[in-house]
Design brief:
- The protein is of the alpha/beta class and about 190 residues long.
- It has one domain: 3-Layer(aba) Sandwich (Rossmann fold), CATH 3.40.50.
- Helices cover about 55% and strands about 10% of the residues.
- It contains 8 helices and 5 strands.
- Strands 3-2-1-4-5 form a 5-stranded parallel β-sheet, with helices on both faces.
- Helix 2 runs parallel beside helix 3.
- The protein is globular.
């Protein structure tokens, strides 16, 4: 009886927290953002939507690492269907763009738009992304893309620069402590050549 009461209380406390969908690009990058958002009082739902990741076995390694992370933090993980053709269709004509160029902007837009759609589907007002923690990604550009999508969808994009206050160091410490898979390129087949 005591166990069920504790469980009920825990469930009730969870329901009283504002929810946020965190688009996760990989477990390394989402480690500290999950912790940060929980500490900020959010019920975090991690959304793994990354049709850009190439090849298939790389996608599976990153997804498995994300599962490990979400289990550690006791957060829900939504695994979107993996469809590389969706990414290739979206960036068609931008294949030869340099890294950090227009192809990357389109990739961010695709993934954040899908995250916003998932937020609307689940009736969650807030969303953000772990991509911004990478020192290789432009926080202002990503925030602008997120804010534009949020405005169109009548949602809130939380533009949090997770890099600040040693966020990248913190995310790496969490990832290392959990032994998470660490990739050596951004994700798409075009980023491998760089």
């Amino acid at each position: 009886m005591k166990i069920s009461k504790k469980y009920s209380l825990k469930q009730e406390q969870k329901r009283n927290k504002p929810q946020i969908i965190l688009h996760a690009c990989c477990a390394i990058c989402s480690s500290y953002p999950v912790s940060f958002l929980q500490d900020a009082g959010y019920e975090v739902i991690v959304y793994f939507y990354n049709p850009n990741i190439f090849p298939d076995n790389e996608y599976e390694k990153r997804l498995e690492a994300e599962r490990t992370l979400c289990k550690h933090f006791n957060v829900e993980l939504i695994e979107e269907t993996y469809n590389q053709e969706e990414f290739f269709d979206y960036v068609r004509g931008f294949e030869n763009e340099p890294e950090k160029g227009l192809r990357c902007d389109k990739c961010f837009t695709l993934r954040l738009q899908k995250t916003a759609q998932k937020a609307k589907e689940l009736q969650i007002e807030n969303f953000t992304t772990s991509i911004v923690i990478s020192p290789h990604k432009n926080f202002q550009k990503l925030s602008s893309i997120g804010a534009e999508i949020a405005q169109k969808e009548n949602l809130n994009f939380l533009a949090i620069d997770f890099k600040k206050k040693d966020g990248f160091l913190k995310t790496n410490k969490i990832a290392n402590s959990l032994g998470l898979y660490r990739q050596n390129y951004c994700g798409c087949k075009f980023s491998i050549r760089n």
